[in-house]
Each structure stands twice: as C-alpha cells, then as structure tokens.
Amino acid sequence: MVYGANGRNGAAFGRTPPVAGFVLAGGESRRFGRDKALANYEGRPMLQRALDALRDAGLEPAVVAPDAGPYRSLCSSFVTSERPGRGPVEGLRAALKATQEPWALV
After folding, report:
1. What is the pTM of this model?
2. By the 8 A CB rule, do 62 and 1 touch?
3. What is the pLDDT along the chain (106 residues), one digit of tens a residue?
C-alpha cells in the first residue's frame, strides 16, 4: 500500500507513516435491517466517512469485508477473510494478517 500519496495530512510532513488503515465492513446488519456501511448520514455513506477520516490522516485505507462488490465505488483496496461469518474479531485478524506495516489503525 502507498501512504501519503493523496497529498493529505500525512504527506504534508514529508514522510510516509508506517501505519496501515482499515475499515471493518463485514457486519450482517441484522438489527439495522440493511447494510450500515452504505447507509447515508448527511448525504454520505457511513463507510465513505470512515474512509475519508483515514485518508485525511494520510493513509490509503482498505475495506475489510467478506465481499468487496458493494463497496467498489468507495474504495479500491480490499481484504477478505478466509473464514467469513466469524464476526469482527475475524475481520481484525484478516486486516492484521494483510498488513506489512508495524502499526494498523482499524
């Protein structure tokens, strides 16, 4: 992954942060009734807000989800799990396994 290439805060310091950024978007949203990641809040999907926060920090985030399809218009980097259906801890495991950076912001 390339960090700081977006010209935002992290790149402003002239260094690449050794941090990987991930957003977990694998929930089933049973109580919510539809995909929370794509639910709009003030005109923007919730997932877009989380991705923008990581980008503003100078990171180029990846979405962790069992299926990248619904999120392809919002992000180009994805991590999928070999063991879907095991909850957010599995998403965290998949994210940490996918990074080569010493730190991860999830």
Report:
1. 0.79
2. yes
3. 333 344 444 444 555 679 999 999 988 788 888 999 999 999 999 999 999 999 999 999 999 998 888 999 999 999 988 787 888 899 999 999 999 999 999 9
For residues 26 and 19, give the distance between their C-alpha atoms in angstroms, rounded to a whole number: 22
Question: Tokens representing 104?
Answer: 């991860």
Q: Which residues contact 95 (CB under 8 A, 6 or more apart)?
A: 20, 22, 24, 62, 64, 79, 104, 106
* Residues whose CB falls within 8 Å of the CB of residue 98, separated by 6 or more in sequence, listed in order: 20, 22, 62, 79
Q: Which residues pair with 78 in a beta bridge?
A: 63
